[in-house]
Fold:
Amino acid sequence: MESYRSHYSKDVTEKDYGKLITISGWVEDIRNIGSIAFIIIRDKKGTLQITALKKKNLELFERLVSISRESVIAVKGLCKANDKVRNGYEVLPEEVEILSVAETPLPLGVVDKVESELETRLDNRFIDLRKQRNQAIFKIRNVVVAAAHEFLRTQNFIEVHTPKIIASSSEGGTDVFRIKYFEKEAFLAQSPQLYKQMLMATGLDRVFEIAWYFRAEEHNTRRHLNESTAIDLEMAFINDEEDIMKILEGLVYNMWKKASECKDELDVLGANVVLPKLPFKRNTYDDVIKKLNNKGSEIAWGDDLGTEDEKLLGEIMKDEGHEFYFITRYPLEAKPFYTMPEGDKYSRGFDLECKGVELASGSQRIHDVELLKERLKTCDLNPKDFESYLKGFRYGMPPHGGFGFGIERFLMELLDIKNIRECILFPRDRTRLTP
Ligand code: AMO
Structure:
C-alpha cells in the first residue's frame, strides 16, 4: 500500500462514493455471518464498516475474519453508499494490510458495556484512552488550552517557560519532592511562583506559563494529583487584586465558551455546558465564614476552607444563583508568604471556586523587599534560602500579582467528572507511578 490513509472515517463524503479509498485503524468488532462479514474499524474521528464478501475473495475474507480485536489494519477498498450503515457508506475491501496484531485476551475492553474499575483502566491507560468518552475529554482539553493561549495573547501576555528543578521550595510548604542535584539538594517545582514574580522585575510585564507541577501531598483524594498541570500568570503595574481577578474570569469564560462549542465531544460525555455570567460573584472571606456558620458549619475565622466547607459553600452559592464565585480578602495567615497584606489581619489573596471546588488562587504580591523578608520570617522560612529570589526585588520591582489555575480541576468541573485522574493522561498519585 503506497499510503495507509486517504481518509478518516468521518471525512468521507458523497464525492468519495464509487472511488477507492484507504482507511486505517483498530479492529473494534468483527461480525461473521457466513457468506458476509462486517468489520468495524475505529480511527481518531469515529468508526466505519468494512463489508467483506466470501465469494468475492476467499483469501482476503478469511484473513479479515480471523484478525484479533484491537489489531491495527489498513484497508484499501471501494467506498459504496449504503443507507443501512450508520455513516451512510461502507468499504468493500480489495487490499488489506495487517500492521500490528493485538494479543488476546485484551486486558481491558474498549466497547464493553460494563465499566471497569478505575484502577484497571489506569493500569491499561493506552487502551482506556481508545474509548470515545475518554478521547472526548482530551479533545476538549486541547480546545480549552488553545482558548487560554488565544485569550491571554489578546490581553498582551507572552508565554514563558521557567525551571522545574529549583533550589528553594516555591510555595514554602512541606509538600515538596526533594531530588539529588549532583552534590546539592534540589526540589521539583510546586509552582512557577518565584520565577514568574522575578520576571516582573524584567519589564516583560505580563507573562503566562502552562506547565507541570509536583506536590508531595500524602493524601489520595479524588481532586489531588502529585503531578498536575496549571495555567499561571503574573502581571505588573496592577492597582490591586481586582485587576487580576478580571483577567482570571475572562480566561475562564473564554475557555468555558470554547468548550461549549465542542458539540460532538459533549454529546459523547453527556455533559451540558452552560455559559456563566460575568462578572463572577465576589464574596469576602468574612462573608463566607458567616454564610457557612449560618448553615451549621463550625469553621472558625482564620481557618482555610476544608473539603466539606467548600462543598457546603458551593451549595449555598448555587442557591444564590452562582456556580463561579471568588473568595476575597483572605486572612493573611491562611495565604503564602508572598501575599500582600491588607492591614494586620487580612491579605490581598483570593480563590476562585466553582461548584464547591477551588479552581485557582492568586493575589497581589509584596513588592517591597524588606516586607517580604519579614513575611518569610513570620512564616518560619529563612530569607537566606530565598536570596536569589529576593535579589530580584532590590533593583526595581513594580507592583504585581497573578494566579495559578489547575487545568485538571477545571476539566472536572466543566465536564462533571468525579475523579481528577480522568482529566490527565497518565496520573501520578500517592501510589501510582506507572504507566
Ligand atoms: P495553589 O497552591 O492554590 O496556588 O495552586 C493553584 C491551583 O493549582 C491547582 N492545584 C492542584 N490540582 C491538582 N492536584 C493538586 N495537588 C493541586 N495543587 C494545586 C488548584 C489550585 O487552585 N503560587 C500559587 C498561585 C498564585 O498565587 O499565583 C499556587 O500555587 O486548581
